Amino acid sequence: EKANIGVVGMAVMGSNLARNLAHHGYAVAIYNRTFAKTQAVMDEHGSEGTFIPGATVEEFVASIAHPRSIILMVKAGAATDATIEELLPYLEPGDIIVDAGNSFFRDTIRREKEISEKGFHFVGTGVSGGEYGALTGPSIMPGGTPESYTVLGPMLEAISAHVGDEPCCTWIGPNGAGHFVKMIHNGIEYSDMQVIGEAYELLKAAGIGTDEAAAIFKTWNQGELSSYLIEITADLLQQADPQTGAPLVDVIKDRAGMKGTGTWTVTTALELGVPVNGIAESVFARAESSHDDLRRVAQTSLQGPDRTLQVPDKDAFVEDVRRALWASKVVAYSQGFDEIRTGGQEFGWNINVADCAKIWRDGCIIRAKLLENIRQEYSASPDLVSLMCAPSIAPQLADYQDAWRRVVAAAAQAGVPAPVFSSSLAYYDMARAPRNNAAVTQGLRDYFGSHTYERVDAAGHYHLEWSGDRSEIKTSDN
Ligand code: NBP
């Protein structure tokens, strides 16, 4: 019997994905550079379904039915290129290499071009849900050709998470589109975690203990904030340190790591000219948290309030923080979805934004009740200029803004950093202002660099003779 599909990379993600496929009745060929890991999967899980272990790449490829679908779950970067190089000599035209690692979408564009020229398909696909999701049903974001999706799609949809009978997997668009969308998923994940952290810090500053904060997050998870990350925050805050018995969160060093997808989301947004303030602030917050020298020096040299908040009405304050969290989260999502749309246009992918929200409703790390709402908004108006302005979102932001402003002001007053809460509010205010401070910037640009300006009352571009007689010259008609 030949395998229906192959998986390369038997570390945590690949082995779980292979088991998920086997649990769904597919015969799965498995391969790992170091055979011991393949053997370990056979020993521990071989009885869960049909696995065909390959000791060599040649044996592995030969064991898969043609046209072959081969999923790579190896370390992103050089390991992915090395694995592809090893596979290529054994493939036949029409075979599909699927890169399910967290590859940068520009690498995926390059690889797709090189590999399709050789007569094979290359599908860069995002997979989210961590190791548990890979095993039980992740959210899957495949790119590549539509032809490859006809072979691969049914298998990926079968193993993905489902909302009712809708799979959390759909074809996103050509070449790098899947990895691009996964990148932004991760960027949004950064901002989701950051706003949770900011909310927790504010609750703490108001004298709320860790247990009580855990209970608050639990309650929030019952309402419109209901999401996987809010749910596990409640769990994290409840956890006692096995060594000391203190809340574990107080023992964990306040230094957040990162592997790159958040940074890629921000650098790509900068290249595309899309403001993703919330995601950028989240990436910068992690960077600042890890900047040991800065923090050591600043803790003794920089003065400010002592991070305590006097709140006369605790319940009202907690509700304010909840509203600020919701509003900031929605603004960060709005920015992330803007990047998906702009990137989709820029790279010629024609990405269906509503579909992204649809396949993120379950399986992935940012799964949340809000995503159904977002899906409905983008389905109803595919050309929605900004999620912030959607019919169900704008009135709620209007309703929540007083609380949001109180929280940002209180945080600033008390010296509690809330970079995403405050930058999201600034973005909201910047967008809605009939006039903003850019006129000063543009005037200065014309002053020192003759970059010209436009006028509010006439078409064309103008330059003022700043160092001459200060007369105005029209430099172009449009
Ligand atoms: P790792 O990212 O730790 O990669 C380990 C795998 O890569 C092993 O199978 C290893 O083989 C293989 N490998 C390496 Br390293 N260098 C290789 C090379 N030069 N040639 C061939 N194979 C090589 O595993 P992971 O945490 O399971 O993640 C796999 C992918 O999934 C990554 O791209 C990751 O970013 C992505 N991802 C992870 C998560 C998550 O929650 N962890 C979620 C979503 C996506 P060896 O055994 O011989 O060393």
Automatic annotation (TrEMBL):
Q: What is this protein called?
A: 6-phosphogluconate dehydrogenase, decarboxylating
Protein family (similarity comment) = Belongs to the 6-phosphogluconate dehydrogenase family.
Q: What reaction is this protein's catalytic activity?
A: 6-phospho-D-gluconate + NADP(+) = D-ribulose 5-phosphate + CO2 + NADPH
| Superkingdom of this protein's organism | Bacteria
Q: What range(s) does the 6-phosphogluconate dehydrogenase C-terminal domain occupy?
A: 178-467
* Keywords, comma-separated and alphabetical: Gluconate utilization, NADP, Oxidoreductase, Pentose shunt
Q: Which organism is it from?
A: Brooklawnia cerclae
InterPro entries cross-referenced by the UniProt entry:
6-PGluconate_DH-like_C_sf (IPR008927), 6PGD_dom2 (IPR013328), 6PGDH_C (IPR006114), 6PGDH_Gnd/GntZ (IPR006113), 6PGDH_NADP-bd (IPR006115), NAD(P)-bd_dom_sf (IPR036291), Pgluconate_DH (IPR006183)
**Enzyme Commission numbers on file:** 1.1.1.44
A GO MF annotation of the entry reads:
phosphogluconate dehydrogenase (decarboxylating) activity
User: What does the UniProt function comment say about this protein?
Assistant: Catalyzes the oxidative decarboxylation of 6-phosphogluconate to ribulose 5-phosphate and CO(2), with concomitant reduction of NADP to NADPH.
Write down the top EC class of this protein: oxidoreductase
Q: Subunit comment for this entry?
A: Homodimer.
Pathway involvement of the protein, from the record: Carbohydrate degradation; pentose phosphate pathway; D-ribulose 5-phosphate from D-glucose 6-phosphate (oxidative stage): step 3/3
